[in-house]
């Protein structure tokens, strides 16, 4: 852990660009994920937190993707969850897959999708014998008025799948996270 802080400080003091420091740290993070996925070692959660490097609120993550990027992301997450042996991490990759799928098929931003609650689906009307739905979400930027997004039947089915996938985790939870769709069980490992 001290090594991570030392390297982080060294790279910043060497006047490396923020992008370069973030890239170097993300490479180490990726390698540790690989080691943990292959079950070669258990990595302390604190290590992952120490490897985070946010240099700009504007660049902390991307909200829009090209069709090519979306396709690559979906393929990568699908490949990851199909190959992953750890059930908790597999669920995390599946959730990533759903976030990108929903984002690509709706007007919602990634941050909005990650903040969806289990009661976000609201039936709007019945049309030609089928129910129509919208997603209602309260965001920090909208104040007290909710943001509403019309969604397709397919997006509704994706949200229903996420609700079903995370139902056991919500039942086990006793905190506020039980209200949210996108929750997962973290590996919290302590070394002695």
Q: Distance between termini?
A: 14 Å
Quote the beta fraction: 5-15%
- Indicate the percent of residues in helices: 40-55%
DSSP helix count? 8
Order of strands in the sheet with the most strands?
1-2-3
Backbone structural class: mainly alpha
Main sheet overview: 3 strands, antiparallel
What are the low-pLDDT stretches, counting only 5+ consecutive residues below 50? 57-61, 187-192
Order of helices and strands: HHHHHHEEEHH
**What is the mean pLDDT?**
78
Count of beta strands: 3
Q: Tell the overall outline.
A: elongated
- C-alpha-based Rg, rounded: 19 Å
Question: Please, could you describe this protein's structure?
Answer:
With 192 residues, the chain is mainly alpha-helical. Helices cover 51% and strands 10% of the residues. Strands 1-2-3 form a 3-stranded antiparallel beta sheet, with helices on one face. The longest helix is centred in the N-terminal third of the chain and has 20 residues, at 18-37. The radius of gyration is 19 Å and the shape is elongated. The two termini are 14 Å apart.
């Amino acid at each position: 852990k001290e090594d991570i802080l030392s390297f982080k400080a060294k790279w910043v003091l060497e006047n490396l660009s923020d992008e370069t420091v973030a890239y170097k740290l993300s490479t180490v993070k990726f390698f540790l994920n690989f080691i943990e996925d292959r079950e070669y070692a258990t990595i302390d959660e604190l290590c992952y937190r120490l490897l985070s490097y946010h240099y700009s609120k504007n660049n902390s993550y991307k909200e829009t993707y090209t069709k090519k990027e979306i396709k690559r992301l979906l393929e990568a997450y699908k490949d990851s969850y199909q190959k992953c042996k750890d059930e908790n991490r597999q669920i995390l990759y599946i959730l990533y897959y759903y976030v990108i799928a929903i984002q690509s098929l709706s007007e919602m931003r990634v941050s909005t999708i990650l903040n969806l609650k289990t009661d976000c689906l609201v039936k709007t009307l019945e049309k030609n014998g089928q129910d129509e739905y919208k997603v209602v979400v309260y965001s920090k930027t909208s104040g007290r008025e909710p943001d509403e997004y019309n969604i397709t039947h397919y997006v509704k089915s994706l949200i229903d799948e996420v609700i079903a996938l995370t139902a056991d985790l919500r039942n086990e939870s006793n905190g506020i996270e039980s209200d949210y769709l996108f929750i997962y069980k973290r590996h919290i490992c302590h070394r002695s």
